[in-house]
Write the structure tokens for this entry.
Amino acid sequence: METSSREWFQQKYSEYKVAVDKYIEGISTRDGLPEDLRSSSFHLILSGGKRIRPVLLLSTLELLSGGYEDGLPAAASVELLHNFTLIHDDIMDRDDYRRGVKTTHVLFGESLAILAGDYLFSLVFSEVSRNYEGETARMLVRVLSEASEKVCIGQTMDIMPEKYVKSVDDYFEMVYYKTGALIEASMVSGAIVAGGREEWLRDFREVGRKIGIAFQIADDLLGLIGDPSKTGKPVGNDIRNGKRTLPILYALERMGRDELDLFNRYFGREAGDYLEAVELIRSKGGIEYARRTMYEYAGEALSILDKYPDSSAKRFLSELIRYIVDRDR
Amino acid sequence: METSSREWFQQKYSEYKVAVDKYIEGISTRDGLPEDLRSSSFHLILSGGKRIRPVLLLSTLELLSGGYEDGLPAAASVELLHNFTLIHDDIMDRDDYRRGVKTTHVLFGESLAILAGDYLFSLVFSEVSRNYEGETARMLVRVLSEASEKVCIGQTMDIMPEKYVKSVDDYFEMVYYKTGALIEASMVSGAIVAGGREEWLRDFREVGRKIGIAFQIADDLLGLIGDPSKTGKPVGNDIRNGKRTLPILYALERMGRDELDLFNRYFGREAGDYLEAVELIRSKGGIEYARRTMYEYAGEALSILDKYPDSSAKRFLSELIRYIVDRDR
């Protein structure tokens, strides 16, 4: 991206983000909430985040309808839904930090963290049902509730990887459930608010699904070979944590017994540095395969967008897809 | 109730319950769910329960429209919502048993129990949005999501009683949020499925709210002076557990310093028997006040029903209200 183009993209991103953040802040200051529930529910969501799901929703809506204001309650809802899943995931994964701040259960205790997630989840559906009319609301609720069913399925697979994530095929299933479904739902929600034409729903379901998987593979690559000064995580971090990411699973399926023995000295263990293990994955083609697959998904998403007329929202969405796969953090 | 009348009531109750149970069983056997998530999500709901919320929904619908079949997806949804809150509450309260079986987190671990609750909560909204048309679905989602916001508020108050439940006034607020709101939402949902006439919504919101509070006070009385052979809990059980129920709060507000000292030897503590403490509450008028208040709420609910034409559903609902306050378990 040229500088002026990048500036334009960042400015547009920021415009969407500021609008959503303002809307979320409005929700967080409503009356009638016990202070303990308010602070625990909004701690994480007000502490940062890229807001990528709301931005996808709003730019899809703008591409299809020419404006995005009508999408703000839905955009806030997908971010609330995402944060609900993060709060509960952090309890399950016993993570102490996220977005550079302490996780909700560490700060407020586990009971309030469970309740905070449940409360955000309730808000998802009360926002949608208060702000959209009959059939639009019904369709949004259906898409968002089915996505959250899928997130639960994906998280079940993720907490029991030895049972549910044994192969590259399992990986694609798990990633669709855990990450792809909500990104898909965000774009479909934009299409629903735009009027819900059947063709739009089909196209943006496809685009969202592909972006969601590309997004996760980008994360996988950053967790393996990202620049530590940018990701804040050491090289090989996902190897230390024993995560079954795409490059790792691909390489595992191709290792002989000796290579497996070597790899298992690093996988899920504390070991000085992980360069030897990273090189093993690279030599088995895992990194190359993951990168190629990611670009394929992103390219397919871009080619679906191609059939829509040019507009600044379309240009933005295309840049966003490129940003998702080329980001360095 | 005469014997024939009681038989008729029990038969009608069972008709509703069997229909809902069958519907829930259908949900529990759908394809595409990892076995661990299926068994943890449906363990509690398939292990029993009175199904009082679905029965209130279906009988309200039948009173207003003459039939109840259309209400089954909504009736299953309120029961799913109720069970979601129970699974998460049991984690927070560290309860090991419910309905005579081990709680979900004890059987499946805490992570799967959190996910099971989240999954049931997702199903609430996907069921409603798949089975009702535009405006009906929107109204149901709004009522159910606002009720679950309230349940979260009530549970926050309940886990921090020393901060949020200091007086009889606090009690009524907490009980409305924690118990009343979902019973209210169940009856309002019945009125929505019946066609959602404004007058119906208003009336059944009132009836539901009053029944909800009466229902909780009945629980309070059983937890204090219920027959141990029927409730399965010893006399004074709520005193042992330090629960701020209506008779206890009423009496506490009227105790002198010496009486408070005496009561605090029992309240929230392990102490052979609790007869002395129960008698103290009785002598301060706590039991009499709670019983009178419960009958007042139930009576007000019955008098709102009075204005509707006689029907077997109306007769059933009136009997149900009497059953709720006169039950012995």
